Structures are given as structure tokens and as C-alpha cells.
Amino acid sequence: MAPQDTARDGLVAFLPHRLNRQPVVVRGLTADELWVCAGLSAAAGLLAGLPLAWITRSIAMMPTMIVLGVAAGVFVGGGLLRRKKRGRPDIWLYRQMQWRLALRFPHGTGRPGTHRLVTRSGYWTTRRTRPRGRP
């Protein structure tokens, strides 16, 4: 550590900008985003594998389709999410998901003890303007 980075008492004199960010794990996804992408891809692979296993009469098609779905989902989903997240804050993806859920299920997204997301669209006013002619 360079001498200008520490104070006289030996403490670090600066805070790095990206100190509390999650590290990028795979294809631009953080660990949480990777789990969400892999879980959704596995569910899609399971849905594709069920009828295929029934048609081919082979139960091995289900795990095969799940693995292929996860691989394709992480590859494709990682690229798409990386492009969507570029230049946005770290919390953008989670707020976007919360906003879409709040619009789709307005009464089902509020957890006990938390505030609900404001989804009102339109003009806001503070009503501080005075009518003409009044002091």
C-alpha cells in the first residue's frame, strides 16, 4: 500500500468506489443474477423435457433438457442481461423486477413490514402556487 493511502494511525484514508458491489461471476452476471437465470432456465428446460420424455419414452430426456436449458440460458441470458444493465446502477435489475411485479400484481407484492412501490404515473404537483390576485 502506498504511503499516501494511509493516515498517521495506519487506517485507510479512502474508501474504494466499488467496495460493496458483488463480483462478476459468469458472463457479466453477479452470483444472485446467475442463480435467477439458471433457475428460470432450468424450469424452462424441465417444461421442454417433460413432453419430450413422454414422446421418446425415456426419462433421461428430462435432466438432459434441464442441463441444456441451463447452459443455453446462462449463455444467452448473460449476454442479454449484460446489455440491459450497461450504464445503470447496481440495483436497477432488482427494482425493475419489483416494478414489473407491482404492476402485474398490485395487491400481492407488499411484504409485511415493508413499504409498497409507488407505481403511479402522471403529473405530480406540490400545490404551492397561489391564485392570481391573492397576496
UniProtKB/TrEMBL annotation:
Transmembrane keyword on record: yes
Domain of life: Bacteria
Keyword Transmembrane helix attached: yes
UniProt keyword terms in alphabetical order: Membrane, Transmembrane, Transmembrane helix
TM region positions: 34-54, 60-81
Pfam families the record matches: DUF3487 (PF11990)
NCBIfam families in the cross-refs: conj_TIGR03750
Protein name (database record): TIGR03750 family conjugal transfer protein
Organism of provenance: Xanthomonas citri pv. citri
